[in-house]
Design a protein that fits this description.
Layout lengths: L9 H23 L2 H22 L6 H8 L9 H19 L10 H12 L18 E4 L2 E8 L6 H10 L9 H15 L6 H14 L6 H4 L2 H4 L2 H12 L12 H21 L6 H4 L5 H6 L24 H4 L23 E5 L5 E7 L4
């Protein structure tokens, strides 16, 4: 069973309408912009998404350095690991971008596992096979005590059936809005945790692909990964995932997850709109700055929530440096940890490899 798509209330519908209008306006702005400018912007947005999504997983490379790596430059001051992860993610993202207007397209096990191989093939091994469903249980561990499980993914035996249901669903029209469907697919995939590693980036990429297949905007203009990579937003992202519980509990109301994503769509669309004005904002937003600064740029849109005050999604534009600088993706352990009655909703978790040795990255809550 997957999470049921919640009914949208009047406020949700209003915000969704604002997003649709903003995206349609952005489509016309892009079409009217000089081709050279648009190409530059596409490159920047791709690099920004790659940098932000990887930063959530603990791989810290600035947007500018990602651009240099994508250009094939070798003299870029990044670690070998960060270089590998950046180029692998760019490879997968490039393929996602080519699929947005493919006529002979369907979601499939082969597609998702192929994308996963592009992302994790350089880490392929018996413990963490790339391009294949995981072979054992995975547990997300708590930084305060690595023996405590913050989240336990579904049983390994349940993964094939859950993934079959997830893959079949977007191939059929359930009449929900494409942006809502994409958000639900993100939640379903990251909760099922079908791979040994890379689940967070795969989930965000699937959301980007599903939005792009809507054929309103190209993938570079559709992704909310850069928005999710802003420190304050990353923290809220993990908190929202943590609200789903410590185990896979799909029979619940996930309206707050949809509202969180609508806020992301709304604010990211306005950010990109501001960057499509040559000479006014774009160049200054593409200055040589770290990923978070480059994402926000010198001309951020209003960060006011689109929701009424009494129901606003708690998203902040102010980086929570002390907490958020410790965040990255989540991995798993292969041996069952003990469980805690104490809520882990506000504490980062650490990553452990299957053999039990903690790596150097810190993480928060629910997803590798």
């Amino acid at each position: 069973m997957l999470y049921p798509t919640p009914e949208l209330d009047a406020d949700d519908q209003r915000v969704l309408g604002e997003i649709d209008r903003a995206r349609e306006s952005l489509k016309h702005q892009v079409a009217a912009s000089p081709a050279k400018w648009t190409a530059r912007l596409r490159k920047f947005l791709t690099a920004d998404a790659v940098a932000a999504s990887n930063s959530i997983e603990g791989f810290k490379v600035s947007t500018v350095d990602v651009e240099d790596l994508l250009d094939g430059e070798r003299d870029v001051d990044v670690t070998d690991e960060n270089r590998q992860e950046t180029l692998a993610y760019q490879q997968m993202m490039t393929y996602v971008q080519t699929l947005h207007d493919s006529g002979d397209f369907s979601y499939s096990k082969g597609l998702l596992n192929g994308l996963h191989w592009m992302l994790q093939g350089h880490r392929h091994g018996n413990r963490k096979p790339a391009g294949q469903w995981r072979r054992g249980p995975v547990f997300v561990t708590d930084a305060r005590d690595p023996s405590i499980a913050a989240y336990t993914a579904p049983d390994t035996a349940d993964v094939p059936d859950l993934m079959h249901e997830l893959i079949d669903w977007p191939n059929n029209d359930d009449r929900s809005h494409p942006l809502v469907r994409a958000a639900m697919a993100h939640l379903d995939l990251v909760s099922i945790h079908p791979w040994a590693d890379g689940n967070g980036r795969m989930s965000r990429s699937l959301q980007t692909l599903m939005i792009a297949r809507e054929d309103v905007l190209a993938p570079e203009f559709s992704s909310i990964e850069a928005w999710l990579g802003r420190p304050g937003n990353t923290w809220e992202y993990y908190r929202e995932l943590a609200r789903r519980g410590a185990t896979y509990l799909p029979d619940q109301d996930v309206s707050s997850w949809i509202r969180f994503n609508l806020t992301a769509y709304h604010q990211q669309a306005r950010t990109v709109q501001a960057r499509t004005v040559p000479g006014k904002c774009g160049p200054s937003c593409q200055a040589s700055q770290p990923v978070q600064a480059a994402t926000i740029g010198s001309c951020p849109p209003s960060m006011m929530s689109p929701w009424p005050a009494e129901s606003a999604v708690p998203v902040t534009s102010t980086p929570k440096i002390s907490a958020c600088s410790r965040l990255s993706g989540i991995c798993a352990t292969s041996s069952p940890p003990k469980y805690s009655n104490q809520s882990a909703a506000h504490a980062p978790a650490t990553t452990r490899q299957a053999h039990g040795s903690p790596n150097k990255r810190f993480t928060s809550l629910v997803h590798p």
